[in-house]
Write a structure and sequence with these properties.
Elements: E1 3-6, E2 9-12, H1 23-27, E3 30-38, E4 41-42, H2 45-58, H3 67-81, E5 86-93, E6 111-118, H4 123-128, E7 130-136, H5 151-162, E8 167-172, E9 175-179, E10 183-188, E11 191-194, H6 205-216, E12 221-223, E13 226-227, H7 228-233, E14 236-241, E15 245-252, E16 255-256, H8 264-281
Parallel strand pairs: 7-8, 7-15, 11-12
Antiparallel strand pairs: 1-2, 1-6, 3-4, 3-5, 5-6, 8-9, 9-13, 10-11, 10-14, 14-15, 15-16
The structure holds 4'-deoxy-4'-aminopyridoxal-5'-phosphate.
Length: 289
């Protein structure tokens, strides 16, 4: 039996239902998080909770729980669902109220939902690398908030999928921002470059782990905006996310990157990332190398 966490109670997942007037359902008025689970343990959980609370705060949703309380509930959910490898999806909405664009006045309790999903590490794609397309970034100017409003991201990912590609790399004019659900990195003259964490991208937790691994291992890094020309001329390109970890990009709009194979620095970072997982969550069964 699968369980879900709904407003503080762990219940059967099939019984977790949303009211038609929940503002998440009607307006996408809420925020979410996805936490990776390895060996039944949450990877970078503190960072995800921090970002979850920050996203909620930035749209004036206040949690009825503290971070340690939520963490404890998530740990209980993991044990109940006996999840070894996968993700926890969680979201909080402003709650249930008569439909009105203005925030409800008075006490409306936010709806908090969490459930688990079984998902193996995408080892095959991580070994071979993935194909991508380019697409104009049509999102709003607060991409730092992990909002439930994902329509532009869905359109971008759908476009990629229809062209047999794994991800869409978004750009605002000449400037590359990020993937539809990932951050994007290039390697230029042996240096790792990725968009600075500002309102135009989501500050990826995986991105932050990678940046720390770079600085610990004396790999030069620049967090700055890079252009489509730089992307086009890059020695290596990869993306990052909680689900995809360090994922090599071997093709962009039909043009090969690094002759169509994952580059050496990408492989090195994949390896360092795997070691970081093992440090936090214990020895992994399936590995890239
Ligand atoms: N950017 C966007 C738009 C995303 O949806 C995601 C996935 N949550 C990321 C970047 C990567 O973030 P993280 O490494 O925290 O999963």
């Amino acid at each position: 039996m699968e369980f879900a966490l709904l407003n503080g109670d762990i219940i059967q997942r099939s019984e977790a239902k949303v009211d038609v007037e929940d503002r998440g359902y009607q307006f996408g008025d809420g925020v979410y998080e996805v936490i990776r689970i390895y060996n039944g343990k949450m990877f970078t959980v503190e960072q995800h909770l921090e970002r979850f609370f920050k996203s909620a705060e930035s749209i004036a949703i206040s949690f009825p729980y503290t971070k340690p309380q939520l963490k404890e509930m998530l740990e209980e959910l993991l044990v109940k669902n006996n999840l070894a490898t996968g993700t926890i999806y969680m979201q909080v909405t402003r709650g249930i109220a008569p439909r009105n664009h203005v925030f409800p006045t008075g006490k409306v309790t936010p709806t908090l939902l969490a459930y688990t999903i079984k998902a193996e590490r995408p080892l095959e794609n991580m070994k071979s690398g993935v194909k991508t397309i380019l697409t104009e970034d049509i999102r709003w100017l607060r991409c730092d908030i992990k909002s439930l409003n994902l329509l532009p991201n869905l359109l971008a990912k759908q476009k990629a999928s229809e062209q047999g590609c794994f991800e869409a790399i978004q750009h605002r004019g000449q400037d590359v921002t990020e993937g539809s659900l990932s951050n994007v990195f290039i390697v230029k003259n042996g240096e790792v470059i990725t968009h600075e964490s500002n309102h135009l991208i989501l500050k990826g937790i995986t991105k932050d782990v990678i940046l720390k691994l770079c600085s610990k291992n004396h790999i030069p890094v620049q967090e700055r905006t890079f252009t489509l020309t730089e992307l086009n001329e890059a020695e290596e390109v990869f993306l990052s996310s909680s689900i995809s970890e360090v994922m090599p990009i071997i093709e962009i709009d039909g043009k090969k990157v690094n002759a169509g194979i994952p580059g050496p620095l990408t492989l090195k970072l994949q390896n360092l990332f795997e070691k970081e997982i093992e440090k936090q969550c214990g020895v992994l069964v399936g590995k890239i190398i």
